[in-house]
Amino acid sequence: MPGERLLEISDLAVEFQVPGGAVPAVRGVSLHLDRGETLALVGESGSGKSVTALSVLQLLPYPSARHPRGSIRYRGQELLGAPEKVLRTVRGNRIAMVFQEPMTSLNPLHTIEKQVGEVLSIHKGMGKAQARARVLELLLLVGLPNPEQRLNAYPHELSGGQRQRVMIAMALANEPDILIADEPTTALDVTIQAQILELMKGLQARFGMALLLITHDLGVVRKMADRVCVMNKGEIVEHGETEAVFRAPQHPYTQRLLASEPKGNPAPPPADARTVVTASEIKVWFPIKAGVMRRVVDHVKAVDGIDVTVREGHTVGVVGESGSGKTTLGLALLRLISSKGSIRYGDKELQGLQFRDMRPLRREMQIVFQDPYGSLSPRMSVAEIIEEGLQVHRIGGSAAERERMIVSALEEVGLDPATRHRYPHEFSGGQRQRVAIARAMVLKPKFVVLDEPTSALDMSVQAQIVDLLRGLQEKHRLAYLFISHDLKVVRALSDEVIVMKAGKVVEHGSAQQIFDAPRHPYTQALLKAALELKAADTPEVAS
Amino acid sequence: MSEAALSRQEDFAHPRVLGIRVRPITARRVANFRANRRGLVALYLFLALFLVTLFAEFLANDRPLLVKYEGHYFVPILATYPETAFGGEFETEADYRDPYVRDLISAKGWAVWPLIPFSYRTINYDLGQPAPSPPSAVNWLGTDDQGRDVLARLIYGLRISILFGLTLTVFASIIGIFAGAVQGYFAGWTDLIFQRVIEIWSGMPQLYLLIIMSSIFVPGFWTLLIIFLLFEWMSLVSVVRAEFLRARNLDYVRAARALGQPDRVIMWKHVLPNAVVATITFLPFNLTGGISLLTGLDFLGLGLPPGSPSLGELVSQGKANLQAPWLGFTAFFSLAILLSLLVFIGEAMRDAFDPRKAMAPSAPAPAAAPPPLDSKAQTP
Predict the structure, then answer these.
(1) Alpha carbon of A511 to those of A472, A516, B54, B145, B216: distances in Å?
(2) Do A100 and B270 touch (CB under 8 A)?
(3) What is the DSSP letter of B268?
(4) Structure confidence at residue B14 as a pLDDT band (50, 70, 90)
(5) Whole-angstrom Cα distance, residue A479 to residue A346?
C-alpha cells in the first residue's frame, strides 16, 4: 500500500559533547518518509545530513552524542532512546543502511557468503544451506556477475562497484521497509555510479521500499528523488517535490547551491601561444616481482605511451576513472616519479637531468594537489608555506620583499593577507586550496599541473576555485594540465581533452569535439554516466 | 598590495605555554598532560629529585660548605686547602672529618657542614657497631658493609643513574632518528638492507655481549655508555622509519619536492616533525630502560668501576647482607619510586600526544565535533 507513513522524524536535535560545551550538529529537523518513495537529504559537508541518518538507527557515538529533543518514529514506534533490544530488531531488519565507503564497510577477513549470511542468521535464524540459497538469490538480484564463484571471495577480490553491490545485497537481505543510503556512490567512478543508482532504483520499485538517500550530488538527487530536503548547518532550509525545488528554489541557500555547478567556458586561448611542454611516449611501468629472486615478471603499466602537448594559456584536461593513470601522468611530467620517454620543457629535454639542473626549472613547473588537507604542512603557517618556494629559489632579496610577495600572492587568490600567520587547520577546505594555489603561483610558474584540485571540495566552493584558476590563467598565460574525473569541471576549464583508460589514451581532441561528438565508445559511456547518470551497456565499461 | 595588511600584526591570540607562544596543537597537548594529575605530580617529583641530586656535593659531602678560620673565609667544597692552612701539621689536604682538624677549626672559627656530612666514599670510622650498621641519627639510612653512608651513596647513585639514562637516551634517540629517517625516507633498497642489518644486530645476545665487552674494556661512564649505545639506538628506528615511510608520500612532502626543496631539507622540515611525537612518547620509557640496564650490570658487578655510587651496587649489597634489611629496602624503594615516576610521566606524555584521546577542557573546541561522515574525498 503506497503512501503508508513509515518514518516520521520531528524536531530532531543532535548535539556532540566536547570539552567546554556542546556543538549542535542537527537542530530541529522534521521529515517523513512514505512507502515506495525516495527522499533525498542534500547538503554540503558538515550540514548534518549523515548525522540525521545515523540517529534513525541510533548509531551515533553515544553518550558523546545527545538528543536534547525530538522524536523518530518508525511505524509509530519511538526509536529515540529505545532499548537496545528493540533497536536490534529494527537495525538491518526493518531499516537497512548502505554506507559510503565500500572499501571499509565490509569486513576484510570474512567471505561474501559469511557476511551476507550473517544478516540472515541473526534476524531470520536461517540454517547454513538455507542461508546459502538466499545469499545466492540476493547476489543475483544485485547483479553481481558469477555469484556462485563469488560466494567464497573476500572483499579485496572485488572491485569498488561490486563491493557496493554486496553491501546492497546485505541491506536487502531481510527485505527492509526503509533503505538508508549514505552517499552510496560518492566513492565510485561515474560509470559505476550510474549502474549502482539504476540498481537501487530498480530494487526499490520491486520491493516497494522507501529510500532515504543522503548525498551532496545534485545530479543524483535529480535522477533519484521524489522529494528533497536541503540541509544547511543542521537545519532543513527547504523541502519539497524534487522538480519544484529544482525549478524554483525558494531559499537563498538552495538557490546558491543550484547555481554553484561549475559553469562557463575556457577563455579563448591566445593564437600565438608558444608550446610550453611537449611529452612523447611517456611510460611509467611499475615492475611486478615474483619468486625467490624477486625477478621482474611483468609490469603494471600505469602510463603506457602517452603524448601530450601543452601550450601557453591552454588547458589540457586529462579525464579518466580511478586507476587510469592520470595522476601518474601528471607526476611523471614534473619528474616527481621516474618515467621513460621524452619530456621537453621549452627547448630543454628534462629526462636525465640531475636534481641540481632540474631545480631552476622547478620554479616554472608547479603542481596543485587534490587534497587541501594533506597538501599543506600542518606545522607551518600559511606565510611559511608560501615562502618556502621563494627561499628555495632565492627569490626576493630580503624578508620584507618576500613578505610583500606573499601578501600579493594571497590577494591574488582571494585570501585576506592578514590571515597569513595562521595555520592551515584554521582554514576551510576551499581556503586551503587557495593557499595551495598561492604557493604555486608565488613562483610565477609557466606550467601548472592541477591534480583534481576541486574533487575534495564542496560544490559551491568548486565553482569558485574553477573561476579563480581560469582568472589566473588569463592573467599570466599559464599552461595547465588539468586532471579530473569530474567531467563538468573539465568542461568548464579545458581547451583540449585527453581521455585515459588503463594507462592509454582512448580519445584525444578539442574539448568541444569530445563533449559534443565523442567518437570512442568509452568516452560516450563516460559522458553519459557523468552528465546524465545513465549506465551504458558497452563492453568497454567493466563493473 | 595594501600596506595596511602588512602592518597589521596577528590579530588573534595564540596560546602561550610558559610564556612561549606555541601552536594550538602543542597547547592542547600541554593542557592534556596537565589534566593528568598523576603524570604531572610524577613530573614535578622527578624534576625535584633530579635537581636535588644534581647538587649532591652541596647536600652530602665530607667537606664543610664554608669555613671561617682566623677571620678568613674558606670554601673547602670548591677548593683544596692544606691542613697547615688551619694550623695543622701536614701539607696534604685537610681531612675535615678528623677530630683533630675539627678542633683546630672550632678553636679559631667555625664551619658550616652540608646536611649529610658524608660523601659517597666517606667511611664512617666511629660506628657504634660493625658495618653494616643500622639507621641512626648520624647515618639516617644506615651504612653499607664498608661503613659508608647509604643515604649519601643513594643521592650520588641516583644522580649517576639519571644522568646515564638521560645521556644514553639522547644519544640513542639522535642515532635512532637519523637511521630511521634515512631508511623510511629513501625506502627501497636502502630500507631493505638497513632492516636486515638491524635484524641481525638485534638478534645478538645483548647481555652476554655487554658482559664480554665490559670485561675487555675498563668500565667507566663513557665506555659503558658507548657499549650500551651499540644496542640501544635500535629502539627508536622502527617507529621513526614507519613515520617517514608514511610521510614521504604525503601531499605536502610531494609539494615540497615539486618546489625543488632538497631531500635533507624536506626530511628536516616537513617529515621529521611527524616523527617527533612518536619519539617524545618513547623517551621516558627509554630512560627507564637505560636506568634499569645500568642497575642490572652494576648488580652483576660489571658496570661502573668499584667504589662508584650506584643503585645496582646497593642492590647487590642488600642481597649479600640480608641481615641488614635497610640496604635492600633502600635499594628497592628508591628504584621502584624512580622507575614508577618515569613510567607515570611516560604514560601521561603518551596520552597527551594521542590524537584520539579526548581533549582537555582548556583546549580550543574543534570547529566540527561530529566525525566527517559526509563528502569524503573522492578517489581519483
Answers:
(1) 20, 8, 75, 94, 78
(2) no
(3) I
(4) low
(5) 12
The pLDDT mean for chain B works out to 81
**pLDDT at residue number A1:** 47
The whole-number pLDDT of residue B23 equals 65
Inspect the interface and report whether the beta carbons of B250 and A374 lie closer than 8 Å: yes
What is the reported pLDDT for B49? 92
The pLDDT > 90 percentage for chain B reads: 20
Residues 6+ positions from B287 with CB-CB distance below 8 Å: B165, B166, B169, B342
- Say which of A19, A377, A418 has its CB closest to residue B363: A19
Report the alpha-carbon distance of residue B118 to residue B148 in Å, rounded. Answer: 8
Which residues from A are below 8 Å from B377, CB to CB? 370-371, 455-456
* pLDDT tens profile B131-185: 788 888 888 888 888 888 889 999 999 999 999 999 999 999 999 999 999 999 9
Contact A232, A44 (CB under 8 A): yes
Distances (CA, A) of A211 to A6, A183, A225, B374: 11, 12, 9, 18
State the Cα angle at B58 between B54 and B60, rounded to 5°: 95
What are the start-end ranges of the H helices in A315-374?
326-333, 355-362
Per-residue pLDDT reduced to its tens digit, A8-59:
999 999 888 876 678 888 888 999 999 889 999 988 877 888 889 888 888 8
Cell of A254: 538552495
**B377 band by pLDDT with thresholds 50, 70 and 90:** very low
Say which of A17, A422, A455 has its CB closest to residue B380. Answer: A455
Q: Which residues of B fall within a CB distance of 8 Å from A362?
A: 258-260
Per-position DSSP letters for B26-59, written without gaps between them: HHHHHHHHHH-HHHHHHHHHHHHHHHHHHTHHHH
d(CA A314, CA A310): 7
User: Reduced to 3 states, what is the DSSP secondary structure of residue B92?
Assistant: coil
CA angle centred on B58, ends B56 and B64, rounded to 5°: 135
Q: How many CB atoms lie within 10 A of CB B222?
A: 10
pLDDT > 90? residue A153: no
B203 CB contacts (<8 Å, ≥6 apart)?
none
> What is each CA distance from B26 to A250, B313, B328, in whole angstroms?
46, 41, 42
Q: What is the pLDDT of residue B3?
A: 41
> Which candidate, B243, B178, B248, B191, places its Cα nearest to that of A337?
B248
pLDDT tens-place string over residues B233-254: 888 898 899 989 888 888 888 8
How far is Cα B27 from Cα A457, in angstroms, rounded to an integer?
29
pTM exceeding 0.95: no
Contact map slice: A 218-237 vs B, CB within 8 A = none
Closest CA to A161 of A178, A147, A144, A146: A144
ipTM for the predicted complex: 0.70
Task: Name the residue with cell 643521592.
Answer: B155
Query: Does the bond joining B114 to the residue before it have cis omega, within 30 degrees of 0?
Result: no
Chain mean position to CA A523? 20
**A106-152 confidence digits (pLDDT tens):** 888 888 888 888 888 888 888 888 888 889 888 888 888 888 888 88
How crowded is the C-beta side of B220, counted as CA atoms within 13 Å? 4
C-alpha cell belonging to residue B38: 598523576
Q: β-pairing, A340-345 with A275-290?
A: antiparallel
- The residues, ordered by sequence, that sit 6+ positions from A131 with a Cβ below 8 Å of its Cβ are A117, A120, A121
Q: Kindly report the nearest CA distance between residue B380 and chain A, in angstroms.
A: 5
Say whether pLDDT at A456 is over 80.
no
**Distances, alpha carbon B301 to alpha carbons B18, B138, B214, B317, in Å:** 44, 29, 10, 11
Cα A413 to Cα A471: distance, rounded to the nearest angstrom: 10
Q: How many residues does chain A have?
A: 543
